[in-house]
Amino acid sequence: MPSPSRLYQLYNHWMMRTATYFFIFLNLSLALFEEPAVYPLPFLATSVLEVLCLLVFLGRLTHFAKVTLHNVFWKDTKNICIMVAILLSLTDLAVYGVLRLYDVRSIRWSRIVRPIFLINFAESRQIRRAFRSIRNTLPEITYVFLLFMFSLLMFSLMALKLFGERNLQTAEGLPYFRNYLEIVFDLYVLVTTANSPDVMMPAFDFSSWYALFFIAFVIVNTYIFMSLFLAVVYNNYKKHLKNEIRKLAYMKRRKMIEAFNLLKEEEGEQFVVREARWKQLVKLVAPDTSNSHRELLLRISDDEQKGFVDKKSFMQLADLLNIQVVTLKIRRHPLARRLPALYGSAPSRLLRSVVRHRAFVWTYDAIILVNAIFIALDEESPYVSYAEWVFLALYIIEILLKVYTYEPREFFGKTQFWNWFDTLIIFAALTATILNATLKSTMKYNSQQILDIVLILRVLRLIRIVDSIQRFQVIMNTLINIVPTMLTFGGLTLVVYCVFAIIGMELFHGKIQYFPANSNAPHALECGNPALKDSLFARGKYCKNNFNDFASSFIVLMELTVVNQWHVFANGFANVTVQPAKLYFIAFHIVMVIIIVNIFVSFILEAFFVEYSLEKSEVETAIEQKIQELGMGVQEDELHHEQLLDNMESAEHELEGEGGTKSQSKGLVFKIASKRYRTVDALLQRMFEAEIPLEDEGPSFEEILNLSPSSVPRSPGSESAA
């Protein structure tokens, strides 16, 4: 039987995690092939695939149970949710299959629970955290929403009294503000500004003074209440996010204490972890760490090289492993090895110093700006055409000079994104230009569009110019830091879209049809439904925006998220079904736009504030400072007994430094990864942990799990001290 550690490593292996995500998205994508389908497959085929996915989920859950304490596993709500979802899906599939045999149409209601697998597996903790933020924010939002609805209903009542008896009509010839429920809906749409100023015009045409009513409504409901929604969401999001981070910090501290107690040995008057055990532990929990990197971490933990790690240093092991340390291999340039006299000559050194100088970068930044201007000019002009060849030649010279100056394998290292980007774009432009010129000279063929795309990609190098300006770096760092959160937000959006898409297909499938422009089908101009005759939906030719399949539903939901013209969609689908169908669109707007989008905005605000405060105070942990002090070149020769050699060298090795580099032998250089590649959660956790003394063991597990945003836990030490 495999050991628990092997089962744990297998559970967290990247292939297992990738396979889990693959089957999760396969399960979600089955909606594309099930009725109503974009690409219909036989029911048997989709059923077999769904059963396969459910078996994989069950196996993954069983594997998780093997590496989790029995009582912890059964107390975890997400595990119960997965088991219930599997059971419901199998039951619904069986019932639907039996009814299908008897030609009885039924609803596949279990499809709505498929997003549960995306939310509740252990790999999706960020999405669960986002849903917890929504759940925790709902009580506060509810109070604001009730006040907002009270305001909306009051203004609707005033509108009914002001305009209901005026016999006014809309531009479509319909009665204006005579039905109270219609007024409520129209004014709710006005809060989103989607029907402004159309909804105001009949009253405004009747009397200019009536504009004051709509101005007051917009100020109160659009600007004040919508801002209140954002403020409440942000305040609660920030409060609960910090509570989550605090739980994680205390949990990590408690786990590290337990690990130390299991490995400790007595050394004099203190307990320590021996070097051999420390190495074994690091190799077990971080198997991909190289020997050199591991020895670097040991040198930091055992600064005096006593052969053991004390409790204080051991508690910092998790931080050490979380810090991204970039290993740079120092190699001599191939020309320096093969043609040392030429490469080391005075002209060669002068040329390399020029390329390394900051002025070289500034010069090419200016060239990129000039090139961007030429791209915007008339491309039919022969001077512009010749200029593109000149710019292309200058870019090729730049790449060749950099490859001559810097060691090629370092210049094209896997972390050198901009070097790869520039080189690929330049040679793609060169290839397209030559191909375009050749084809134009041999046949009547013009591939200018391909060339335009490549030249536009060249303009993307302007991002480098923006990034090089100090004032813009906080914004750029924030944009880079929120990339992982964009994936979380994407997962959150996917869950909401899937649920509303499935509901929308059940409610509106087949109610609206799309016909080509030259179609002679009955009611083709009314999207196949006479109820849409003379409606804004039909006149706007929105027939392709329907819920007839999963893909079309997603497109409609995306358009509803943008908000513009969403009331036209709501009225159109209400006309072909029943008026209460508008509640579907209102519910989507509340969930997606008011709650989820505001949570995303809240995260961007928090990310910017954290990045800005770090930029101002340069908050760094003692671990990072220690690595920066030591860090350093180590010889790549054989390490005797895995010990670092003592001849440490400076780690200030940059591919685009301002000066020359001294001659170094083949070796390694360790560097702290750029701060811009750290997630906001990691930065918040670091800021919170800086406030916890190392001797503070924190609260118990039960107290940690029950921490609330308003509670401030007290450690056992602080209680005894009191």
UniProtKB/TrEMBL annotation:
Compositional bias annotation for Polar residues: 707-722
Main location: membrane
GO molecular function ontology, one term from the record: monoatomic ion channel activity
Superkingdom field: Eukaryota
Residue ranges occupied by any Ion transport domain in the UniProt entry: 19-239, 358-613
Transmembrane regions listed in the UniProt entry: 14-33, 39-59, 80-99, 141-160, 180-197, 209-237, 359-377, 383-405, 417-437, 478-503, 583-609
Annotated segments matching region Disordered: 703-722
SUPFAM superfamilies in the record: Voltage-gated potassium channels (SSF81324)
Membrane topology term: Multi-pass membrane protein
Gene3D superfamilies reported in the protein's UniProt record: 1.10.287.70, Voltage-gated potassium channels. Chain C
GO cellular component terms, semicolon-separated: membrane
Keywords: Membrane, Transmembrane, Transmembrane helix
Subcellular location: Membrane
Family annotation (InterPro entries): Ion_trans_dom, Volt_channel_dom_sf
Name of the protein in its database record: BUB1 mitotic checkpoint serine/threonine kinase
